[in-house]
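Many introductory courses stop at the sequence. We go one step further.
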Amino acid sequence: MSIKSDFSHGGWRPSSDRFLEIVDQPLYRTLVDLQDLVTTQTTSFWSGRGVKSVHLPITTNTISSPMGLGSDSLPVEIDLFGERTFLADSMQFMLEYGCRLSPSGAWYLMPSFRGEDADESHLNQFFHSEAELPGGLDNCIETVDAYVRFLAKAVMERLGDDIRGIAGTTGHIEQMLAMDAFPRITFDEAVTHLGNDPYAVETHEGWRTLTRHGERRLLEEVSPVLWVTHYDHLSVPFYQAYGDQDQRTALNGDLLFGLGETVGCGERHVDGAQTRAALAHHDVPEESYDWYVRMKQETPMHTSGFGLGIERWFMWVLNHKDIRELQLAPRLNGVALTP
């Protein structure tokens, strides 16, 4: 069947006919299968560990992900019946609250909204699989490893032939499953490995961050699935715990595979005093996070959490190059789209 759009080169672009053009495309039928798989398997994974699903709103007055000097995210502000509020970029803070009600941990699978422009690896509206768990960074990393393996195994068992038909291979999935462990390096070790490559690391006053080019080099030269931990603290949001006494590094980690960062995780400050100190360190006004600080002060708890970008995971599974094509109904900020 001939179609009007080339869906390997720009099938995300606004078109009043796109919703009809994709109906018979194998990519989008398999995308529905993957969406269903990630939902059912995520539920199964957490149910087996006694971690509870929580239902949360998509609006908030307390944004999380954009609050860091190294963040490339912008919040989406709306007027909700005269009240200034935001569409959720992440509900991690509420998951931390959920841990106070469900001591084994809390999780959700829900949409997130970002204000920066969409491109090959960023969406304005995407899905997040997030969880907050008791314990520290090592426990969180081990749980993420188990979770992404769990999903990869389900893909091979249920959709292997379909994935091969679209991606041309399932070798990358098989490679992940064959690894005994996902290697870990620190951010400082990553910077040393990348050497004097001016395109691999961005350096700012007091903090550094990896570029996408730097991430890809690490995936090619170190390991196709790789943890990078202990980033410069000023490059991550204030709520990540400190990784050293000098408060230079963070107890956080990014799991790189596919296009690069696909999972981000971190350990949190335990109490109100630690959280206040970090807010001051990052020059973030405390009044915007009053309830969060009060929660930490009144109910201290040692937790860590992570977020998996679902469409970035789809990119890896399908060996796809443009995340904007991996939506049934694309959404672009400032553009009216059908349906």
